[in-house]
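User: Hi! Is it possible to get a structure for several chains at once, not just one? Here's what I have:
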Amino acid sequence: MKLIYEKSQAGRRASVIPRPDGLQAPEVPEDLRRSEAPRLPEVTELELVRHFTELSTRNYGIDTGFYPLGSCTMKYNPRVNERLVALPGFAQLHPHQDEDGAQGALELEWRLQEILAEVTGLDAVSLQPAAGSQGELTGLLLVRAYFADRGEGDQRRKVVIPDTAHGTNPASVTMAGYELTDVKTDARGNIDVDDLRAKVDEHTAALMLTNPSTLGLFDENIEEIQQIFHEAGALMYYDGANLNAVCGISRPGDMGFDIVHINLHKTFSQPHGGGGPGGGPIAVRDILEPYLPVPAVVRNDDGTFGLDYERPKSIGKVRGFTGPFGVFVRSYAYIRMYGPRLREMSEVAVLNANYVLARLKDAYDLPFDRLCMHEFVLSARNLKRDHGATATDVAKRLMDYGFHPPTVYFPLVVPEALMVEPTETEMKETLDAFCDAMLAIAGEAKDDVALLKDAPHDRPVRRLDEVRAAKNPVVKYGFEPSAVAAES
Amino acid sequence: MTHPFLALTDRDREEMLRTVGVSSIEELFRDVPGGVRLGRDLALEPPLSEQELSAHLGDLAARNADTTRELSFLGAGIYDHYVPAVVDTVLQRGEFLTAYTPYQPEMSQGTLQSIFEYQTAICELTGMDVSNASGYDGTTVTADACYIAKHATGRTKIVVTEATNPQVRQVVKTYAPGFGLEVVEVPHDGGTTDPDAVAAAAKGAAAVIFQQPNFFGCLEPAPDIAAAANDAEALSIAHVDPMSLGVLEAPGRYGCAIALGEGQGAGNVMAYGGPHYGFLAARQEFIRRMPGRIVGETVDAAGDRGYVLTLQTREQHIRREKATSNITTNQTLLALGGLVYLTWLGPQGLREVGETCLALSAHAKARLRERAGLEVLFSDRATFKEFAVRVGRNARDVIRDARALGVHPGYALGRDYEGMDDVLLVAVTEKRTLEDVDRLADVLAEVGA
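Assistant: Yes, the chains can be modeled jointly so their relative placement is included. Here is the combined structure:
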């Protein structure tokens, strides 16, 4: 398919810009004036709409079909949320509007904070972080500020992370200026408590943990882990990527965590948008509230809502304004349609995952044979050993059956990992069709492995050469005939 | 009653529990120790139907004075530019809206090709060689650039001009302790920054960050500031308004190492501050230090052109603690909005929007001077779409009084700058008309500014 730039013809346009009568633009000083126009596409609006419509047909979303991408919680995104976020009172509201002109927006933010405090079992919430990984960094900056305030800033330099963690955790540790301590996973898929005990001491600032873990397993020793950290005077950070498993069942605050980030685009249905936007609010125990980003959204004594910048111990700002407001509108709307029934959401997410797991565990290797939570990790190492079929091959062949593949090769502790998260919004017929496909593929690996190796067969492109892309990076259009044929 | 977002019937549940080999849903949670269970219902308000929800959020939205209800001249980083209908048309396609990060390129050519086209558009606007797939907003991409500068130069001082957006400076300062960086500010001199002052501060610095047009709306001597940074072998980082780049020079043309900024004005609604996209583009030499996703061109098994996420060894899921950033979810859908908008504009449209902003804001300056008797601050400096005026008394009071008459006249600069309590920052985009400008002047005259 052609690039939009390859459809461009000088002289075509889609826009008409108002030009007020009789006004002349003042001259821009010559050394600051644009010397050569940017080569933006020149197309009609029809050509524009056709181009992006065709591109959309080369994509696959939740609306297209089943999308069991582990760790990403690809659940249905209710369309009423899109209508609500587009209301002029939300969409056309300037973020510097005075507080008395933004009471509805501030109330919505305040209400969402209250809800997230209840769901996480913690005391105070900042909505500001733009995504989970920024929530992590914000949380670690709170840890820094807290220990600096207590005179323990130089002493506590280490953050403990299990080897199953999302890559964002260690990356955030480095960005926050901390040192990483890795801790192992035991034979049941829990944190290795003995390894942990040996590594936690007066130099430890915090633990970062996902629970249930990226293996989809609830850590059975969470109470002991909590004890180890709090006795060492360290804090506990909860990566909320997997919160969809435990809403209304077990709250991070009840598990002993002091800081939590919530991925609004996972648990609370902000559409993923091909890679964002997200939302990464953090909830904290009261001892950390003074350090939260400014401004805080508060309810005043007279019942109005406002922004509080007077937080002398605040770490500052991590993003503009109060955060990605449109994301808050959608997630608030989503939660209000559930209320306390969020518990059923998590229950069905866990049932769906266990059902798919039960149907697949004989055909694929199961590294930890336990009931799972909202997701589980299988391994294709048996197919690789016996037939030479890898997790990638299984993933690509699933596309032929019309499904988006699971997350592959993560977590790193499981070879040939296939991480499956069905979510609660899928019906049993869909789960069965997916299981049938996975079982059929395991059979094909044995009978005709080429079917897997050559897959996908029906997508707009065949398998792509990622090594070539990285070796000689071409990251923008060259405005001359491409090295590769432009037609496809 | 089954919740409408849940798809299992009672019979489904029974069959599925049987297959799993447990007798109840409760049993599925047996690994969760009793001591950490909630043991009660969440204390949340009862569920709302879609209809009830719409009424509730409609009430909340109605309590906001948005720009369809109040004539607004607010800017200060977020701008009321026109967003055409085609942006909504494209962004509401479920295949874009409900997909995630294109880890599986065969399922995601739509997202991948559009990001490649976006990267091209950003490189064209800024005159740079490489753009990432987007960052969170204009503040966080600036912090990201400091991380690039630290590693590229091995230095730890960041110089930022005081005339750079205060929120951008705040975010850089928040990130700085974690990065091991110190931040030094260079004061403005009559509304713009003195390149000699930058040269003095830039000695031993990792980067010099400046904004063009700056926070006061004034045009900085950008080529001289960039040269001062480059002479000190610090990275010159231009924080630019994409909507100005049809009429103002591309940072790549005057020697900047990195160009970045807030993308909102180009294709996103204001939405009380987000979600928007931040863009980040750099010269080729920094390609392997870039944070976040980058899409590259390649071929498939049949030799046909296709697109993939590339240079992933920079990223957290591969490199973990040695990654160039922790970012994963970015702002792809908003960046797609930017691409659609820039395509709708084309090169002529972008230039014309810039010219209309220039013309209308110059007109507004004159009107406020003549009709409302206000003093334009920094009047010898060239501006783009925003400018500062003295209103003779506390600007916050003037804003309150003007709003009572249905006009939001701008941003109170005293919030961020000492000695500017009586200064208003007025933004005039192409959405404003000659009549709107007259009304602003009349209202400011009436409230005794």
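Chain A has two domains: 83-340, 344-462. Chain A is about 35% helix and 10% strand.

User: Great, thank you!
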